[in-house]
Automatic annotation (TrEMBL):
Belongs to the ATP-dependent AMP-binding enzyme family. CDD domains: AFD_class_I. Pfam families: AMP-binding (PF00501), AMP-binding_C (PF13193). This is Acyl-CoA synthetase (AMP-forming)/AMP-acid ligase II. Keywords: Ligase. The keyword Zinc-finger does not apply. It comes from Amycolatopsis sulphurea. PANTHER family: AMP-BINDING DOMAIN-CONTAINING PROTEIN-RELATED, LONG-CHAIN-FATTY-ACID--COA LIGASE. Residues 128-324 form the AMP-dependent synthetase/ligase domain. Gene3D superfamilies: 3.30.300.30, N-terminal domain of ligase-like (3.40.50.12780). The keyword Ligase applies. Residues 372-446 form the AMP-binding enzyme C-terminal domain. One of its GO terms (molecular function) is CoA-ligase activity.
Length: 465
């Protein structure tokens, strides 16, 4: 393993990564495309990638599909002291170009990773004092910001200790915080990663049974696809010890269904690209107090949170260093853009995005779209729903619109009456409802409301009215 010179410090994260690979030997690190990669093979590939990156300076941008080389190239670049920009799988072509131009990065695609992997073996002489990874923010409501993370990696090296008993299924893009952190955590813990190139509910269920998966993380939309899959009743789920749900609020009905199917192993987390670990809630808490099915939990140690004018603001240990090109955020408070409230026991309940609020009715009442979605999802024949604003007649005012996926016969009037009864206010009731076969998802598994919304706003100078 690389060692520092006299008086120098090295990244705890990189030191732990190298030790985990060196100590792992022939234990399996990756199962991918019906092949296996041991830790010894991963260490050799890492040294080849390190050699291949020898002529690059500054920042490396990785824009590639799910494969082990993505994370190993990231680590090789960080061993060289390079900053790494991970291009989000959901980013538009202009956003990808803008991110590379803003950082001055050298872009690496799938073809480049294949070429780098064929480089000769090499030895790392020294390790830098820290690592920096840049993630674009979600960008579903505008141009993505570039989020710089540094301190979180040494935090991971402290939290994740050798275990080696888990098999972690990863379907999220490795260029997204969720997938990236899952693989790095498994590497540090000595666990095995079952890596999928893309999400497929049937493949997830098949590998849970075939690979005896112990841990996985899903977005609400992907969890719904698993729960609705016809293979579910015939799948052995007994190996699963941890199912984490995050990236968007999950309806209480779906969460209750997941607890019923998977047992007391389902937990919900809340975080942002800017602050990946903000709150969490365990299955035990939800089973003991069913009213908490609508909560994302309590604030995790090392983080602080409160609300300001209804918006959740946070600060603490999992915070980003700052946005690229902007001053570090230091100990400042971050506005999350999420609307919510805390109950008397400190449990956080989210109502929606501040940018996802519909201003409707003659009094300009603010309606959080998530509130209406949860009401629709409590109907027994609604499988999935997305609620958003559409322009009113002649482009004046905003109306509540719902796109709904059902698993049985339902009418617009029936669903509108259900929302009215559930929420007790006419302003929550969708003015219009479309029945669709499925909802489009971004590459990271969130419902793509921007795509759903865009046809309604064609010809309008802005997406608000």
């Amino acid at each position: 393993m690389a060692t520092p010179g006299y008086g120098e410090t090295v990244s705890l994260f990189l030191s732990r990564v190298m030790a985990a690979l060196d100590d792992g030997g022939d234990t399996v690190l990756f199962r991918h495309d019906d092949t296996t990669m041991t830790r010894r093979q991963a260490a050799e590939l890492l040294s080849c990638l390190y050699y291949g990156l020898s002529g690059i300076r500054g920042t490396v941008a990785i824009d590639a599909g799910n494969r082990p080389e993505v994370v190993l190239t990231q680590l090789a670049a960080q061993q060289r002291g390079l900053e790494v920009l991970l291009i989000a799988a959901s980013a538009s072509r202009p956003a990808r170009t803008a991110a590379v131009e803003a950082t001055g990065a050298t872009l690496l695609t799938d073809a480049d990773l294949t070429t780098l992997a064929a480089s000769p073996l090499s030895t790392q002489d020294t390790l830098p004092g820290g690592v920096t990874t840049i993630f674009p923010s979600g960008g579903t409501t505008g141009t993505p910001k570039l989020v710089r993370h540094r301190g979180i990696y040494d935090g991971m090296a402290t939290i994740f200790r050798p275990d080696g008993t888990r098999t972690v299924l990863v379907t999220a893009p490795l260029t997204h915080m969720t997938g990236n952190a899952a693989v790095l955590g498994a590497l540090l813990c000595g666990d095995t990663v079952v890596l999928h190139r893309k999400f497929d509910a049937s493949a997830v269920l098949a590998d849970i049974e075939r690979r005896r998966v112990t841990s996985l993380s899903l977005t609400p939309a992907r969890l719904a696809a698993v729960l609705d899959n016809p293979s579910l009743p015939h799948t052995d789920l007994s190996s699963v010890r941890q199912l984490s749900v995050g990236a968007a609020p999950l309806s209480p009905r779906r969460l209750g269904q997941a607890l019923s199917v998977f047992g007391p192993v389902v937990g919900q987390g809340y975080g942002l690209t800017e602050a990946p670990m903000i709150a969490g809630i365990s299955a035990g808490e939800m089973l003991e107090r069913p009213e908490l099915l609508g909560s994302v939990g309590r604030i995790v140690p090392g983080m602080e949170a409160r609300t300001a004018e209804g918006e959740v603001i946070v600060r603490g240990l999992s915070m980003m260093e700052g946005y690229h090109g902007k001053p570090p955020i230091a100990d400042g408070w971050l506005r999350t853009g999420d609307l919510g409230h805390f109950d008397e026991d400190g449990y956080l309940f989210l109502h929606g995005r501040s940018g996802d609020v519909i201003v409707t009715g003659e009094h300009g009442t603010k309606v959080a779209s998530t509130t209406v979605e949860h009401a629709l999802l409590s109907h027994p024949r609604v499988r999935n729903a997305a609620v958003f604003a559409i322009p009113g007649p002649d482009g004046e005012g905003e109306l509540v619109h719902a796109a709904v996926v059902t698993n049985g016969p339902a009418t617009v009037d029936e669903l509108r009456a259900h929302v009215r009864e559930t929420l007790g206010g006419e302003h929550f009731v969708p003015t219009t409802v479309d029945f669709v076969d499925s909802l489009p998802l971004t590459a990271v598994g969130k419902v793509d409301k921007a795509l759903l919304r865009s046809p309604f706003w064609l010809g309008h100078p802005r997406n608000i009215a």
